[in-house]
Design the sequence.
């Protein structure tokens, strides 16, 4: 038996596979750039206790932030501490999305979730990549970037009274008390504001925020690949698929496929 894991910045899914899916376990997400290794260790403790009855021989981990030998080694070492006699493979979640969306076809692939990432996939491996730069400098198109744009409009009183009241009631926050945005792991909290944006996207100002958000994403990232087609994965890509499609039409780029969650397609990739 093996585990195939897809671990993003906010959520992880660990699938036990023996020719078919035996069990799926959901956990918090992890990114070595934004969370301490103790966060991953807590996840691994939970996974180990959840799979003790299974005979595992392999773990394939696709994770956010696995973009260098250093981050790969950090995650691999932690997993080996909990699964000592198991073959461990640690890969980027971007490669996971490529395999889930394209299999052996070529294409430009992008993740839009808590953070964002993109690349040109040659049908086997990542061939070219525009650096996402992380949430402080980049992550265009992501839930974090969308939540940040909304929050700025809120704090500058550039939203309708109805939206402001609804937001304050739902999140128990006010303009005088918003320390949360400077606290530890605030990027996860801010990224979740994209859920509020999605629920209120018929509002005129919210529509404008969404439009500008995805136009900036296409201009800063996707158009630089000089492509006419695009594959997408992630919760933001899925819940804003109509808005993304409308913006992609402006740049004459076809959205080929959108997956909210690539894990089941990754299972197919590794089982076939």
Sequence:
């Amino acid at each position: 038996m093996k585990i195939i894991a897809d671990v993003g910045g906010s959520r992880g899914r660990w699938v036990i596979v023996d020719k078919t899916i035996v069990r799926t376990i959901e956990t918090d997400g992890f990114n070595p750039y934004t969370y301490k290794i103790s966060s991953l260790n807590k996840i691994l403790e939970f996974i180990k206790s959840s799979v003790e009855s299974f005979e595992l021989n392999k773990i394939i981990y696709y994770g956010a932030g696995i973009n260098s030998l250093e981050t790969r080694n950090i995650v691999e070492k932690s997993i080996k501490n909990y699964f000592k006699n198991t073959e461990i493979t640690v890969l980027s979640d971007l490669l996971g999305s490529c395999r889930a969306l394209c299999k052996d076809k070529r294409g430009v692939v992008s993740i839009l979730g808590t953070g964002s990432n993109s690349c040109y996939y040659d049908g086997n491996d990542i061939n070219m990549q525009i650096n996402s730069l992380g949430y402080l400098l980049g992550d265009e198109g992501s839930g974090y970037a969308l939540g940040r744009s909304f929050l700025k409009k809120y704090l500058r009183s550039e939203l309708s009274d109805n939206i402001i009241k609804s937001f304050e009631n739902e999140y128990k926050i006010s303009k005088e008390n918003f320390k949360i945005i400077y606290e530890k792991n605030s990027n996860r909290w801010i990224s979740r504001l994209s859920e509020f944006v999605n629920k209120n996207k018929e509002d005129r100002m919210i529509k404008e925020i969404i439009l500008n958000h995805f136009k900036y994403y296409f201009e800063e990232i996707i158009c630089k690949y000089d492509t006419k087609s695009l594959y997408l994965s992630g919760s933001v890509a899925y819940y804003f698929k109509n808005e993304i499609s409308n913006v992609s039409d402006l740049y004459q780029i076809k959205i080929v496929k959108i997956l909210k969650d690539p894990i089941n397609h990754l299972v197919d990739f590794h089982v076939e």
